[in-house]
UniProtKB/TrEMBL annotation:
One of its GO terms (cellular component) is plasma membrane. The chain crosses the membrane at residues 55-75, 82-100, 130-147. Residues 157-316 form the Putative aromatic acid exporter C-terminal domain. It comes from the Bacteria. It is a multi-pass membrane protein. This is Uncharacterized membrane protein YgaE (UPF0421/DUF939 family). Gene3D superfamilies: Putative aromatic acid exporter, C-terminal domain. Residues 151-178 form a coiled coil. Its main location: membrane. It is found in: Cell membrane. Keywords: Cell membrane, Coiled coil, Membrane, Transmembrane, Transmembrane helix. It comes from Cuneatibacter caecimuris.
Length: 334
């Protein structure tokens, strides 16, 4: 998990460095004055997701227009002096904090210094600053488009999640049949829970880096697996209370192994649910045990079967919630 997290941070560092460098070079090619400012704007504009970067660019443009208006009034009355710039900042920073846009005020504050340096508001100066803003925010958005999706990382996450789910289910199956001989360790389950939390973050980034697609698929998938993991935790806790190997344990263990073998992403769980209902029917038909301990184990096994049903229904609900477009994009074309 630390490697994946560091990889994401490394990609962001690369995005920032490349966006800033390319923004400066582009500004130089366009013949803009204060080209280094384009690099600073790109650095300030890079966000974790494309949506955040786009929204930040929109707010920076609005902030720039407001800064031009406010600074023109201030410099018109007080002249192009350092203390005039201080008056401008006093007004502009207060207004930015008031509306919650303090994260974009730095860009406008920087470009306004150029008006102070040039000491006039000609169209050439205003146009130059607007071009710097466009180049800086444009490069930031471009870097998010090229380097921000990370789909391959999430695809690897899905593969890893399913592999670990299979291991955990097989461990539960083995424990049902050999209560006294098999150690039911929850470490693998705990690791999977942590891994899913990190995977959800990566899936969220992909969702926000794809503005016009059904990209919530990955996040929905991770949410489904997280809920299934919580259900496995319940099964794990139930099995810990077993005193002996209950009757029909072999059938239950075999079914859990079958679930493990079919845990993959594209199984809709319909067939498994039908098999489970038959197993529950058989369990209910067994004569009740005569002593209390066996009765408790019988009830525990019934609870396990109910939890397994919920586990499978979570997958069924996920599959049924997919649109035809998602099925085509992520299953048929994937």
């Amino acid at each position: 998990m630390r490697f994946e997290k560091n990889s994401i941070e490394a990609v962001k560092v690369i995005r920032i460095a490349l966006a800033s460098l390319l923004a400066i070079l582009a500004a130089d090619v366009l013949g803009l004055k204060y080209s280094a400012t384009a690099g600073i704007i790109a650095l300030l504009s890079i966000q974790d997701t494309k949506r955040e970067t786009v929204w930040g660019a929109v707010r920076r443009c609005i902030s720039y227009i407001a800064a031009v208006g406010v600074s023109w009034v201030v410099f018109h009355f007080f002249g192009f002096h350092a203390y005039s710039y201080g008056v401008f900042l006093l007004i502009f920073v207060a207004a930015s904090y008031y509306i919650g846009w303090q994260d974009v005020l730095s860009t406008s504050a920087v470009v306004t210094t150029h008006f102070l340096t040039e000491a006039h508001y000609g169209l050439d100066v205003v146009g130059n600053e607007l071009a710097l803003l466009a180049v800086g925010t444009g490069m930031a958005l471009l870097m998010n488009l090229l380097l921000g999706r990370g789909i391959q990382a999430v695809l690897r996450d899905i593969e890893e999640v399913e592999k670990r789910l299979k291991v955990i289910l097989n461990d539960l199956s083995a424990y049902v049949q050999r209560v006294d001989d098999t150690d039911l360790d929850g470490e693998a389950l705990g690791y999977l829970e942590q891994f899913l939390e990190e995977s959800r973050k990566r899936a969220y980034q992909i969702q926000n880096n794809t503005m016009f697609a059904d990209s919530e698929y990955y996040l929905d998938y991770m949410e489904m697996r997280k809920a299934q993991c919580q259900t496995l935790r319940q099964i794990h806790d139930h099995l810990h209370h077993l005193a002996y190997v209950p009757e029909h344990a072999a059938l239950v263990a075999e079914f859990i192994r079958h679930v493990a073998d079919t845990v993959q992403e594209r199984n809709n769980a319909d067939g498994l649910i039908m098999q489970l209902h038959e197993l529950i029917r058989l369990h209910k038909g067994v004569p009740l045990p005569e002593n209390q301990i066996q009765m408790e184990d019988f009830a525990i096994l019934y609870d396990v079967l109910n939890e397994l049903e919920y586990f499978l229904k979570l997958k069924k609900k996920f599959v049924e919630g997919l649109s035809q477009q998602q099925v085509k994009r992520y299953w048929e074309e994937g």
